[in-house]
Amino acid sequence: MVLGMKRNATRSRWITLGMMAIAMAAATTARAQDAREQSLLDLANQARQEAGLKPLTWDASLAAAAHAHAVRMSTEGPLAHRYGGEEDVAQRAAAAGAKFSLIEENIAIGRTALEVHQSWMKSPAHHDNLLNPNIDRVGLALVPAHDVLYAVADYARGVETMTTAQVEESVGKVVAGSGVHLIADAAQARQYCAQDESADKTTGTGPHPRFLMRWQSADITKLPPVLEQALRTKQYYDASVGACEPKGSGAGGATVFSGYRVAVLLF
């Protein structure tokens, strides 16, 4: 049976947290080295190679999200992509630490990894997920229960992990390339970035910008057309760039659960 869908203290306390992180990482590594999961990954990449596609690389965060959902499938059933009180696949993967601009999920039950793979290849929707040329990472989980394997495959197009400062530097270079002077203090832009969508002005004691824009995207090498047009007018002389945590949706309503959120103020 298969289903598929498409769709970012004190010293002792820190030591405890560090040990927990190490334990979680070790558990994830152990799951990644499971022979059956490795077999399922090998079968997927063999199918992609035969289709002329690049192989998928293992993503431990996606695997952690897949494993957690597979456990729920094995205990709650029937097969579903979402159970009561559970977030959807994009939110689960982002919460596990995965960075992506596209995510898909296949689920199934089968007696072996080969049986699971074959069932996905015979189903048009699952076949298309697995052989999607736009994905490059995967996290797999096979949880044994009730004499079968509960399988979850989370496929994604990965997004590079960057710090706030790195995002601001990258966008700042593009903005400065238009001829405006980049203001070193990003506090005002960061504040506007973090505000709710309903807020249409900055707060604080800084100078009042004549143009404000914030957006969210997995690709920060390209500025939104509206911002590019504003810069081309040559009406602005200074700019401030600020980054903040993404809020769950991108420009135009596109889902970008782990992209980057940026604000640009022009003066």
What does this structure look like?
The protein is of the alpha+beta class and 267 residues long. Helix content is 40%, strand content 23%. A 5-stranded mixed sheet has the order 1-3-5-4-2, sandwiched between helices. A hairpin with a 2-residue loop joins strand 4 and strand 5. Helix 3 packs across helix 4. The N and C termini lie far apart (59 Å).
Give structural attributes.
four-stranded mixed beta sheet, five-stranded mixed beta sheet, elongated, alpha+beta, 40% helix
Count of β-strands: 9
Termini separation (Å)? 59 Å
Q: Provide mean pLDDT, rounded.
A: 84
Give the % helix. Answer: 40-55%
Coarse morphology: elongated
Q: SSE string, helix = H, strand = E?
A: EHHEHHEHHEEHEHEHEE
**Major sheet attributes:** 5 strands, mixed
- Classify the beta-strand content into a percent band: 15-25%
Low-pLDDT stretches: 6-31, 250-254
* Quaternary form: single chain
State Rg.
22 Å
Structural class: alpha+beta
- How would you write the strand order of the largest sheet? 1-3-5-4-2
| Number of H/I helices | 9
